[in-house]
Please model this.
Amino acid sequence: MKTLYLFLLLLPLAIAQPVTAQKSSKAAKAAQEEKAFQEMQALVNRKQFQIKIDRVYPQSGHDVSRFNPNGKIRIKDSIAEGHLPFFGRAYNLPYGEGGGIEFNAPMKNQDIQITEKRKKKFISFYFSVPGQNDLYQINIDIVPNGGCSINLTSNNRAHISYSGTISAIEEQ
Model:
């Protein structure tokens, strides 16, 4: 009987120890996520970053990454440079210009927004940039771990989406 009382007396102490350890690890994880978010926000606000594309999602919705979709978007100050693969329908292009999407011009209509959904923050960066015989509207959603998704809308081509990773510009 004494062992039962002793067991019942020590049981709450045994349960409380892991709970407090779990709370402190959640707090540390939240602090780490906030620090990563602040770093990504500073990178985007400086407008000195590049995105390496690793997946392509045409309007059909199928992932066509098996075709080795190497692409890159580079933002430096107010200039956007992009070399992106395109798989989809082109509506109005001159003959022979149905390849990838290429642009290197000043950005217009720039907007940066911070959104919080389900206790997670992400950054949305919108801009439009002219290409050869086209205008591209680009929306980049960035999460704190460096992952991002890109939605591209064009006047002469079908909508296409990409995913990739964002990083500081690598000097060559």
About this structure: Strands lie at 48-58, 71-76, 79-84, 101-106, 108-117, 120-131, 134-142, 147-154, 160-168. The longest strand covers residues 120-131.
